[in-house]
Design a protein that fits this description.
Layout lengths: L1 H23 L3 H23 L4 H13 L1 H12 L4 H4 L1 H10 L9 H7 L2 H14 L7 E8 H14 L3 E6 L6 H15 L3 E7 L8 H10 L2 E5 L19 E4 L3 E5 L17 E10 L2 H16 L6 H4 L11 E7 L7 H11 L4 E5 L3 E2 L2 H12 L3 E7 L5 H8 L2 H7 L2 E5 L3 E2 L3 E4 L3 E5 L3 E2 H5 L3 E7 L2 H15 L1 E3 L2 H4 L4 H12 L5
Parallel strand pairs: 2-3, 3-4, 7-13, 9-11, 10-16, 11-12
Antiparallel strand pairs: 1-7, 2-5, 5-6, 6-7, 8-17, 9-14, 12-18, 14-15, 15-17
Helix pairs in contact: 1-2, 1-3, 2-3, 3-4, 6-12, 8-14, 9-10, 10-11, 14-15, 16-21
Length: 502
């Protein structure tokens, strides 16, 4: 059936475009250019069709090609190509699989997992198998609730660095906080500390060249992840490094939702207050975070630093912190790692599932899991921003509200500024915090990193913070929401049409 639909849509596209050309083109150059474009679109359409993508995604692309041929052609080359990821990230995938350290053979490791209970055991096992990452029971974590807490802790720890500082960010701004961090890094280089800074070429495309040159001239290594020269021909454009990582001396780490920029301190006039969540990590699990960075660095530079001086961590000599597992996910993996763990968290919940996500465009699996959990009587909550920063995603996300509300999911819109936290809490005991949004891009295209917490004090702190966020949010009522005007519903539905591509 899918073959018939695909071929039918391709024929329709070709016939309709050809009809338009014959009746509307005056110049021969325009005619032949349009003819070539049509041929290319047919070839691309068959390529998408033969890739056996999700049928909805396939049909969405073909409809776009029919309705907006030229725009669809450009959009596909920027965002639509899937076949490359198996090739361009193959080296990175095998490197990850070969070099992730395993501590499952250590005495008492399996016994400590058993002590966590059946529910956490299943999640730990799944995360270990998919992410090649062990769980640590000797790692201290602390939740940082906003930009002020996060950057003050980052600055404090950076100033203590003695051997190396590793940074990996999606967005880096040359503003006040960006400049302050740059000055600290330059000072640490002068003190003999090795500084390596990996930034995403697309996320940080506005970063001034002078910022990069200052760090490089001081002796820091600063490298772009996925550099772009000719975007339409570049095979890395659509696969971005969305991670936010800092590792200091192999013993202290930071991950979470905050990039480097003044807006994350609530200093943007458009958004005002910026609600976000970050995590500081000390101890054994920092080794996994270090490995994620070092492998990204190796992929970008071909320089490897997988040695004891970078992988030996300062580990607490006692237990009692709960379980901490760091997982990196991305298009280099044969599994959608973080999405699979999210799905397992939702479907195995016994009492509650609380989610905070600034961009909510779930695929069918996650959407169905949330609805079934709510219909089963679980306390399922979704916290999203009331005010958008990305309007297409914002309006697309609202089209999922009616079916979620009808199934019993409670939806809250955060009112005080912009909510950028990326949190999942299950049964008040297990939680995820990191860079992954509940959307297609995070699940399938971006390199992400999340910390999974099992019965830690930080998980309980996330519960408390979530309850505080609910107090300053407005709950969406199904009767009121259904009264949206026709124009708004039309806009939302149009954005929903693009949701498989977002």
């Amino acid at each position: 059936m899918k073959n018939i639909v695909g071929i039918g849509l391709l024929i329709l596209m070709l016939v309709s475009t050809w009809h338009f050309l014959l009746n509307d083109v005056d110049g021969g150059l325009i005619f032949y250019s349009s003819l070539i474009l049509t041929i290319f679109l047919v070839i691309i359409g068959f390529n998408i069709f033969l890739e056996n993508r999700d049928p909805i995604q396939t049909i969405t692309w073909l409809v776009i090609f029919c309705a907006f041929p030229f725009i669809g052609f450009i959009f596909y080359f920027l965002f639509g190509r899937n076949f490359r990821k198996d090739r361009i990230f193959r080296k990175k995938y095998f490197l990850d699989k070969q070099t992730f350290v395993k501590i499952s053979s250590e005495a008492g490791y399996n016994e400590r997992i058993m002590e966590m209970g059946e529910h956490p055991q299943q999640l730990i096992t799944l995360a270990n198998r998919l992410g090649n990452s062990p769980v640590s029971f000797t790692t201290e974590t602390r939740v940082l609730r906003n930009g002020e807490e996060t950057f003050s802790n980052i600055i404090e720890e950076l100033k203590k660095a003695r051997h190396h500082i590793h940074l990996e960010y999606y967005i880096v701004r040359d503003d006040r906080i960006g400049g302050l961090l740059k000055d600290i890094l330059i000072q640490k280089v002068k003190e003999g500390v090795k500084v390596r800074f990996l930034y995403d070429a697309v996320g940080s495309w506005k970063l001034a060249r002078s910022y990069i040159d200052e760090l490089k001239n001081a002796g820091a290594e600063m490298v772009a992840f996925g550099p772009l020269h000719l975007p339409l021909l570049n095979n890395k454009f659509n696969f971005r490094n969305h991670r936010k990582i800092i590792v200091i001396d192999g013993s202290v780490g930071f991950i979470g939702g905050l990039n480097i920029g003044d807006e994350y301190l609530g200093q943007d006039q458009k958004f005002g207050s910026w609600r976000d969540t970050h995590l500081i990590i000390k101890g054994e699990a920092v080794r996994t975070l270090q490995l994620i960075f070092l492998q990204d660095w190796y992929y970008s530079t071909n320089n490897s630093f997988l040695s004891d001086e970078y992988l030996m961590t300062g580990m607490p000599n006692h237990y009692g912190y709960g379980g901490v597992q760091l997982i990196g996910g991305g298009p280099d993996s044969e599994w959608t790692i973080i999405k699979s763990i999210f799905f397992k968290m939702i479907t195995s919940a016994e009492k509650s599932v609380w989610i905070a996500s600034p961009y909510f465009v779930p695929d069918d699996n996650i959407l169905q899991a949330l609805k079934v959990a709510a219909l089963s009587g679980l306390d399922v909550r979704l916290l999203v921003p009331k005010n958008p920063d990305k309007r297409i995603v914002f309006h697309a996300s609202r089209t999922y509200f009616p079916e979620l509300l009808a199934s019993g999911v409670r939806i809250f819109q955060y009112k005080e500024g912009f909510m950028h936290s990326k949190i999942i809490i299950v049964d008040d005991q297990m939680a995820s915090i990191g860079t992954t949004n509940i959307d297609m891009r995070s699940f399938h295209l971006n390199f992400e990193v999340n910390a999974f917490l099992y019965r830690t004090e930080s998980a309980q702190q996330l519960v408390n913070d979530y309850m505080e966020d609910i107090k300053v949010s407005k709950e969406v009522e199904i009767d009121e929401f259904s009264k949206r005007n026709f124009g708004l519903k039309l806009l939302e539905s149009t954005c929903r049409l693009l949701s498989p591509l977002l």
